[in-house]
Amino acid sequence: MTVAVCTLSHSPLFGINDPGPETLAEVNAALDEVRDFVKRFDPEITIVFGPDHYNGVFYDMMPAFCIGSAARSVGDWGTEPGPLPVDRAAARTLVAAVLDAGLDVAQSEEMHVDHGISQPLEFIFGPGYENPVVPIFINAVGLPLGPMERVRLLGEAVGREVSSWNKRVLIIGSGGLSHDPPVPRLEEASPEVIERLIDGRNPSPELRAERERRVIEAGKAHAAGDSPFQEINPGYDTLVMDTLAAGDVTATDGWANDWMEKEGGHSAHEIRTWVASYAALSTTGDYTVTNRWYWPVQEWMTGFGIMTAISKES
Q1: Which domain holds residue 276?
Q2: Which residues are catalytic?
């Protein structure tokens, strides 16, 4: 048994809003190193923890956690639409294991995922990848949210199960770090937007294009210093990365939702995917962080971080 982790930010504005040649070159070089890390590890199966941004999961049924035993990408922000190569048997085994651990988790035989899950998989494996995956949705946008302890327990339940598989398992955590993008919130939305947050599947091409235009313009305004959205907070991002790199995953239990939002913005809750990933890895014993990168990218409205790690027994 061997477990490796790659946690990384995603951004719909990656490849659209230009952060400058130096930053872009550094990010691309880091992603090349991640791909080399994964290639050397040669995973037999990949578990990916990721959020959604009201493209696949809506308030008609908003679970805290959901494991997809079949899934398809909605194809937003340039990601490839269509079915993911989900290992159905592994997914169903994980559902049973998480339930046996005393955690409520939903199961989907038709999970719809957006760039929060698709983009990191394409970063690492390229479009049209065939590597077996299991997508695990962690709600990080649809308030209210549960306590961080539950996220850690989810990760640990997944980690204990995959540790018994006698396989090389790659765990991806997609999200964060500090960022405050223009994602609507139910409590403040207009009736028209509320309707879309409840059941907004299959938007027209025109509506999707208009939504994407607004996000692109928000990113440009943010980079120009003319934005109502919260600033990237490198201090928050460093705390998250330091805590997880040190193996102190239980420390995140005390991170209150309102504190994370105040420090890191409305979408800072996406660090839940990082916490779940390192909680899973921690069940194998001590681990080693093999690489770590960070950039506060104003053009992407994101504290863009990447960390890779592997269990010390590997």
Answers
A1: 2-311
A2: 115, 179
